Structure formats: C-alpha cells, structure tokens
Amino acid sequence: MSGSHKTHGHRGSSKWKVASVAVVIVALQAAAALYFSPPSVVTAQQPISTFGFARSSLEVAEPAQALLEQGRLRRYDPTSSAGAFHGATVERSSLLWQLWTAGLIALGVPKWTAFNLFIWFAHMLPVFALFGAARLFGLGTWAALFASALGAALWSFDGFAHWCWFDGQVGLAVSMLFAAVWWGAFLRYLKSARPVFGVATSALAVLAAAAHPAAALAFAAIVASLLVARRKDLPRGALTTSAIALGCAAAVALIDVVFLGALAKGGALGEPSGSGGTLGTLVADIFGLNAGRDIVGGASVRVGFRLLSLSAAVFILIEQRKSRTLRWHALMVGVGVASAFAYLGGYVPGVGRSVSYGQILLALNISAVGAAWLAQEFAEKRLWSKLPRFGAVLLAVAFFAALPRLGRDVVYFIPSLFPGPEELPEEKPHIADMVGFGSIGYPRHRHFRHLPVSEDWRKIAASLENWSHDQGRVLVESAPLAAYLDAVTQVEVIGAGVGDTAVSKSANIFVAFSGSDPDKKTLEEYLEKYAVGWVIVSSNPDPGDRSYRERLVDAKELLVPARLRPAQYRVLRTKKTTSYFVRGAGRVAVEEGIVRVSETDPDEELVIKYHHFDELTCRPGCSMEPFRVGSKGMGPGRPFIRVLAPHPASFEIGAR
Q1: What are phi and psi of 571, to 5 degrees?
Q2: 596 SS3 class
Q3: Nearest-CA neighbor of 361 among 317, 297, 438?
Q4: Is 640 helix (H, G, I), strand (E, B) or coil?
Q5: 3-state SS, residue 18
Q6: pLDDT for 75-118, tens place per residue?
Q7: How confident is the model at residue 30 (pLDDT cuts 50, 70, 90)?
Q8: Buried b (16+ CB within 10 A) or exposed e, 250-279
Q9: Which of 232, 363, 380, 594 fits a disulfide with 338 by CB distance 3.0 to 4.6 angstroms?
Q10: What are the residue ranges of helices labelled H in 490-579?
Q11: How many Å apart are CA 212 and CA 207, to the nearest integer?
Q12: Cα–Cα dist 473/82, whole Å
C-alpha cells in the first residue's frame, strides 16, 4: 500500500511540474505577444500600420468586409490607385486571416480591431502548434514542452521569422506552423493507420493552405518523399489518405489564389515579392551576413536559435542513422525538403520569397521537434555520461560560445527593456581624446514591435478629412503611409501597394520611374493623366534615390508647398486645376465600391480617369470599354474607362 501511495504521489508531483512548466511557457509567450503587439495598438480602431502591415490591412480587412456585404472575398475600390481591387495578391494572401476578420466583424467587433486581433492568435500559436507536432511525432510531454519553448524562441528571435509577422506576412508564418502539425499528424497516420489521424491530416492541410498557399508546396514534396521512402511498409489506404490531404490543400490554395482574383483577367497577380534563396544565402545565414532585404527581410540577420535548432536536428539524425525508422525518415525528409526549397528556390526563375525562402520557417518548426527528440534521448539514455572527456569539453565550449549569440539575438528584438544610448549632443563634441570620443551618442535602435500610428501620419490623415474631388488625388511616396491613408480616409490615393500590384505599379510614378530621371514635361503629363492634386514625399530620402523626388520638389511651376509641415514628409499641392475626365465633362464622386458620374452631356462620349476592368459594369443603360492614354516615359499603363454615347446624364460604375 505504501508503495502504491508513493507511486501515486510521484505521478501527481510530476503532473504538477509539467503543468507548472507549461503555464510558464504560455505566460512568457503571452508577455512577448503583449510586448511586440501592445493592447493599445491591437484594440485601437485603426489597422496596425507598421511597414507591410498597412498593405495587409487592405488585402485582408477590405475583402473580409466585402464577404459580409457582397458575398465574395474581393472588393473594388475606386479610391485606390485610380481604381483597383483589394484581396488579390499572393505574397500577403491569407484566406484564414480574411475569414477570421469577417467572422469577428459579424460578431460585432470593429473592423480594424478584428483585423488586428489575428496577430495575438498568431503570437500564441507556436507554443501550442509545436507541442502538438512533437506529441504526434511520438515524443514525451517534457520533450514536447521543449519543442514548444524552442518554437516560441524561433518565432520571436529568428530574424526572418520575426520580420514576417512584424511586416504583415502573418499568414505565411501561421501556415508554416499548421504545416508542422500537419506533418506530425501525417506521420502518426502512417504509424497507426487510424482514420482519426487521416481526418486530422486533411483538416490541417486545409488550415495550412488557407493561412497561405505556399504551405502546400513543400509539404507535397515531403509527403511524396515519405511515401517513396516507406513504400514497402505503408498502411492500407495510405495513398488514398495522402491524396485526400494533398487534394484538400491544393483546393484551398487554388481558392486562395485563383478564385480570390490573383489570376483574374485584371492582372492582379503582379510580380512575386522578393527572390528565392540560393547556396550563397545559406552561407550568409550561417555566418550572420545579410543576403539582401528582398530575401531575408528588413531585420538584421539573427540566426542563433535557427542554427541551434537545425544543428540539433542534424545531430539526432546522425546519431539515429542506423535505425532508419519512420520517425527518422520523417525528420530527415521534413527538414531536408523544406531547407532545399529555401536555399535552392532562387535558381528557379520567377519564384518569390514566400514560395521559396519562406519554407525555411517550416524547416525551423520541424527541426524544433528534432531538437526536442535529441533532448529526450539525452535525458532518457543519459548520453552526456557516455561522452568521452574530450567530447564533453567540446560540448561545453560550444555551449558557452553559443550563449552570447543567443543572448544578442534576444536583446536585439527587445531594446526598450534595456538602457538606451545617450542622445546626440546639441553641440559638436570634442573628440580629440578617447573620453570625448566615447561621449558621442548613437541613433536609437529600431523597435521591431507594433507601435501606435505616428503623429505625422495622424496629422496628414486629419488634414485630408475635408478633402474633395476638386482637389485631385493624393500621390504618396511611402507605401505604408499610402496604405494607411487609403484604409482610414475617403481620399483617393496613389501609392505602392495600394490596390493590385500590377495596377499600383503602372499608376505610381515612384515605381514607374524608379531609377530614371524624368523631365518636367513628363512629370506634368503624369500629374495631368492621373488627376494628382497632392504629392507627399519623404523629407529624408535614401541616398542615390533622389532623381524623381527632387524633380517633383523643384518643379516650382507645377507644385507649391502646402501649409501642412509634418516632420518626416514634404506635402506639396499642384498649381493646375485637376480633372477626372480625359474627354467630356461632368462631376465625379466615389462611394464604397462605386464611381458616381453626374451632370454630363448624354450625347458626348466620356473618358474618365479610372482604371477599366472586365468585372466592372456601367448602369443604368450605359456601356463602356477600355481606353488607353499614353504618357511619355511611362507607356500606356492600364486603360481608363470609356463610356459610349448615348448614356444617361447621371450613372454609376461598380463591380458586378
């Protein structure tokens, strides 16, 4: 009896310890979520507008609103880049995020709060997803908790992973977490052949592909490789289950890409953002060098936890190489295939970052499970006691060598929790001696966390509240600011990332003339073509990127400074009166998804300066067709709308 009581007490104590550690991990990740995405930002009735998040707000929240109002996940917006559609680009596509936002809006949550809340869900997902993946992989509870903690560290402190969710590519990061659980469920099905795991595999395939279509790419190769490697001992129905799971993923990915408009006739797909990784990227990652922002993102290269996780996975694969078990094959194929996509995808023309290099997130999630397997083997088999003295010393040296790098990666992303550098002195410091040299201040470290909308942005948005069509469109150099203004105001905005990629590229001078030096005549033609009345440019441009900006600022006969003087921007007004008509005359007004034209001559043909799409209709009793307007140096761009005579004096144009 006493023995049984002791055993029961030991089990109770062990469960309490497991629960305590689990609570600590969840609490730490919750604290990280509140630090990186503070409640004051998430619950504000404005979209998170940090870098690419501003663009994601248009591509996620606007289609979500359209789903509730029009029954489809694509929205026509005449205020974006002279008419464009939202919800149609692959790079930031996330059907799951759109449905999340639509669901919360339907429950009464304000639109922008519903959109923002997804980031908290994403922040908490790593600890639960990798715990589940590790358990499905067959690891014990303690090892699963290790994988959960390592996954949380990778989410917050790996440079590329952090940049993805910070920059608005949350769907990509979430999809790779669901894909890791999908991997575990598929492995469990191959081991047990139980139908419940087959169903789970298909359900997780849908979630992963809905979060981002890129998740289905590497995983299809992983499943195929596993089926080939274990073809002699596959359970009955394994091929059918695999086909169903991959079919579900492919179907959702196609819905995310095709039926939401990415391959529609409007040309919304655009060009893939960034480029894929290469072997040079691999070398750069190992040594902490920057292989290019278009590949690894805008944060510094912080790969300490990445190298730790991948090295541990490789170590356990080597240590277990003779076993050739299904578990061993699953880990090898999972890490190997995802890493190959990440570091060889750049050799495939036209492959974007999310499709190629983004697969490194899946490799990291799976490798975290491999690292947990190694930790379990060390604990259960007491492998450290079997190491030779030299090996033990080498392991200790490696640990103490890695510790500062891991600490540096952590501190890099939480600078506000530590004393900052001194401010630069107002007077020029004396640097003739070392004491004086050491007194020079340094620029503040960038905070890779979601911060409230800047005062400059608020001022600009407030100043445009009384905007009217008579004042013309607002051309904005900064892509995040352009998306923010498009989201929170009724102003017609032209800017990078506002509307479909191809449309914003052809209508935006800062993209069309990038690297060139247009003359003033060309600038005048551009401003006239797109009815530009305001121009907002940076007051601190990057060196070597000044030509068209300086041309605009210096074109005194075209533009004059506005009264508004924000610190970081120059706001200019055009001298000429703008018109929204290439041919004809009348009045134009825009509402939610509709261009209203009035006071026109019914017998006069009209050409209005809004982009033509096949999905648009003219009503009542009018017909339209595309009309191309050339512009020196820019090419014809996307055609405008030509309304044929006769037509009503007042009519409207909108999506079907």
Answers
A1: -110, 125
A2: strand
A3: 297
A4: strand
A5: helix
A6: 889 999 899 888 755 556 688 999 999 999 999 999 999 999 99
A7: very high
A8: eebbbebbeebbbebebbbbbebbbbbbbe
A9: 363
A10: 501-507, 509-512, 520-529, 547-554
A11: 9
A12: 8
Grade residue 351 by pLDDT with cuts at 50, 70 and 90: low
pTM of the model: 0.87
Question: What distance in Å separates the CA atoms of residue 213 and residue 252, rounded to the nearest whole number?
Answer: 8
CA dist 322 and 623 (Å) reads 72
Is residue 171 within 8 Å of residue 217, measured between CB atoms? Answer: no
- Helix (H) or strand (E) segment spanning residue 457: helix 455-463
Q: Residue 132 in contact with residue 186, Cβ under 8 Å?
A: no
CA distance 113 to 376: 41
d(CA 60, CA 108): 17
Contact 476, 485 (CB under 8 A): yes
C-alpha distances (whole Å) from 85 to each of 172, 179, 273, 510 are 21, 29, 18, 20
Query: Which pLDDT value is given to residue 432?
Result: 55
Residues 6+ apart with CB under 8 A from 8: none
Q: Is 502 left (phi over 0), alpha (psi -120 to 50) or beta?
A: alpha
Helix H segments across 158-229?
A: 159-166, 170-192, 195-211, 215-229
* Residue 353 pLDDT: 67
| d(C-alpha 282, C-alpha 613), whole Å | 43
> Which residue shows structure tokens 């009793």?
621
Q: Does a cis peptide bond (omega within 30 degrees of 0) precede residue 388?
A: no
Residue at 368: amino acid letter: A
Tell me the one-letter amino acid at 292.
G
Pairing of strands 616-619, 587-591: unpaired
Pairing mode, strands 473-476 and 493-494? parallel
**How confident is the model over 482-489, as a mean pLDDT?**
89
Q: What are phi and psi of 478, to 5 degrees?
A: -70, 120
Q: How far apart are CA 627 and CA 43, in angstroms?
A: 44
Phi first, then psi: what are they for 79, rounded to 5°?
Answer: -85, -5
CB atoms near residue 13 (< 10 Å): 10
Q: How far is CA 154 from CA 55, 126, 413, in A?
A: 25, 9, 12
Neighbours of 583 (CB within 10 A): 14
Closest by CA to 58, choosing from 112, 123, 122, 119, is 112
Element (H, E) at 262: none
Angle between helix 326-344 and 215-229 (nearest 10): 140
User: What Cα–Cα distance (Å) separates residue 156 from each residue in 126, 360, 401, 413?
Assistant: 10, 15, 21, 8
Condensed to tens digits (0 to 9), the pLDDT of residues 153-174 reads: 999 999 999 999 998 889 999 9
Output 490-497 pairs: Cβ under 8 A, ≥24 positions apart.
Answer: 490/79, 490/590, 491/79, 491/464, 491/467, 492/78, 492/79, 492/80, 492/82, 492/590, 493/79, 493/80, 493/81, 494/81, 494/82, 494/530, 494/532, 495/81, 497/52, 497/54, 497/55, 497/58
Whether 207 contacts 216, CB under 8 Å? no
Alpha carbon distance 622, 644 (integer Å): 7
Dist. CA 464–CA 609, nearest whole Å: 21
